[in-house]
Structure formats: C-alpha cells, structure tokens
Design a protein that fits this description.
The chain has 299 residues and is an all-alpha fold. It has a single domain, classed as Farnesyl Diphosphate Synthase (Orthogonal Bundle), CATH 1.10.600.10. It has 15 helices and two strands. Strands 1-2 form a two-stranded antiparallel sheet. The longest helix is centred in the middle third of the chain and has 26 residues. It starts with a helix and ends with a helix.
C-alpha cells in the first residue's frame, strides 16, 4: 500500500495553493490605517499549516459531486475559524506561544491588540463567506452552514473545549473528561467539515450519520496523534513548541493511556472511521487517505 502521506501530498498541496490564492484576494491590503490589521490576518492564514480541515471539506463535498469552487468557499470559511483560534490560542493570556508553523506567532510579529483584532476579523469573515450567494444559491443551505459552523465554533464546540483546556491546568482530568475536551476543542470543527459536505450536497440531516461517525473517530485519532507528536516529535518538523502540556501538568491521551495504548487506540479509531464510509465507492478514497494520514504524519 502506498504510504498515505505520500499519496495525499498532491491533494494537500492543491488545496493549500487554492487557500492561499483565495486569501490573497480576500485580504488585499487597503491603503488606509487598517493595513496593519490586514497584514496580521495574512500572516495568520497565508503560507502555512497542513490545510487538513479545508481538505476534509473538499473531500466530503466530493462524495456528493459538489462544484469544486463552491466547496472551496466553505473550505475558506473553516480555515478562517481554525486560524483565528490559533491566533488567539497563542496569545500570552492563553497558551503563550512564540512560534507557529515555523514563524513568529501573530502577536509576536505584530502586537497583542492587533492579534486579537486579526482573530476577531477572521472569525467574522468566515460567516460573511458562507452567507454569500456565491457559496450556494439556496438560502436554506447557506443558513444551515452558518448555523452549524456557529455551533461548532462556540461554547458548545471549539471555544467550550478551549475553556476546558484552560481549566485542565488546575484540575486533574480523567479519560472521559479529556475525551470530551478534545471532542469539543478539536472534534467539533472536524465534524463541521463533514457535515458541510452533506449540507452542500442537500443530504437530509438524518442521512448524515456515517459522516458524523467518521468525523467523531477521526477527530479523536487526530488528537491522539497530536499528543504522540508532542511527546515523540521534533519541533523543527512540527513548527511549534512541544511538550508544553506535560510541563503544565495537563492530562493527555498519552499521559492517561501510555504511548503504546494511545497509538493502538488511534489505529482502532482510524479503522472505525474508514468503516463508516463502507457505502461509498471511489468517491470516498480521499477521505480514507486522510484518515490514514492522520496517524502517519510527523508534523
């Protein structure tokens, strides 16, 4: 079998290039005092990252033969939210990181106030993109996209998970609580990526169960892989500081399960994720490759 990270590279490169091209257009720097804000937003979104979430959106939309230009618009929206979260997570009041994707974090390259505004702007830009008729001519489709991304991004999703992560510095979390934390902080946005494919393909909500199952298992496996990289990885490859969770005394899947059990659990979850795609033929191959890549990557 071809190594997933090799077979997936052309797709990742293509989506990464498509994201950069669209952000170049969306974030053209104005010739007025807002230029610093736009430059900070560009620093946070252009030319870096795995672009895993945009690729998931494209792959999910491909299941239902959604027009690629439209699926890339949804991909831009999810990447806006993801990058906003990274900008804010890196702030001194959160994780206090100086390096992201091998470059200075936004608050280091600019300043803290600009970083807050850049994150705020990317979050709101995501919903502007989804609400535009260019994303889909059906206002009900656009409304459902907006609603689902809002839920996945807020207190019932990513932000709620981040709050739990902050609390984890002063509390001892068991495995179920740690799992819930990661389902919110990491898994909610991954869940939206798959849900968006069904929404864009006009698949009824009750028929999206396989997509949700895939997203749930992939999200947890992805986080376990991150935890393993935090212990075993190379910061030169990952482009960020490692072993900060252990230093902060936070529970992770590795600290709770041990390296071997955590790795085996990730493999089991990936097998389950792929199993949810059994009703799809070749159109599901990209999602299968993404699942394998999630635990084979080294960054």
């Amino acid at each position: 079998m071809v190594h997933a990270s090799v077979s997936l590279k052309p797709a990742l490169d293509a989506v990464g290039q498509a994201m950069d091209q669209r952000f170049e257009r969306l974030l053209a720097v104005p010739g007025d005092p807002r230029h610093r804000l736009y430059e900070a937003m560009r620093h946070g979104v252009i030319g870096g990252g795995k672009r895993m979430r945009p690729l998931l959106v494209v792959a999910a939309c491909d299941l239902f033969h959604v027009d690629r230009e439209r699926s890339l618009r949804v991909a831009v929206a999810i990447e806006c939210v993801h990058c906003y979260s990274l900008i804010h997570d890196d702030l001194p009041c959160m994780d206090d990181d100086d390096v992201r994707r091998g470059r200075p974090t936004v608050h280091k390259a600019f300043d803290e106030a600009t970083a807050v505004l850049a994150g705020d702007s990317l979050l709101t830009l995501a919903f502007e993109v989804l609400a535009d008729p260019a994303t889909h001519e059906d206002p009900f489709v656009r409304t459902e996209l907006v609603s689902e991304l809002a839920r996945a991004s807020g207190p019932a999703g990513m932000v709620g998970g981040q709050m739990m992560d902050l609390m984890a510095e002063n509390q001892v979390f068991d495995l179920p609580t740690t799992t819930r934390l990661q389902q919110l902080k990491t898994g909610a946005l991954i869940g939206f990526c798959l849900e968006a494919g069904g929404i864009m393909g006009r698949v009824p909500a009750e028929a999206r169960t396989p997509l949700r199952g895939y997203a749930r298992d992939l999200g947890l496996a992805f986080q376990i892989a991150d935890d393993l990289l935090d212990v075993e990885g190379d910061s030169a490859r990952t482009g960020k500081a490692l072993r900060k969770d252990a230093e902060a005394g936070k529970a992770t899947f590795v600290s709770l399960l041990g390296i071997d059990r955590a790795r085996n659990q990730a493999r089991l979850l990936i097998d389950q994720a792929i199993g949810h795609l059994h009703d799809f033929g070749p159109e599901g191959d990209l999602l299968r490759a993404i699942a394998r890549f999630a635990i084979e990557r080294d960054q």
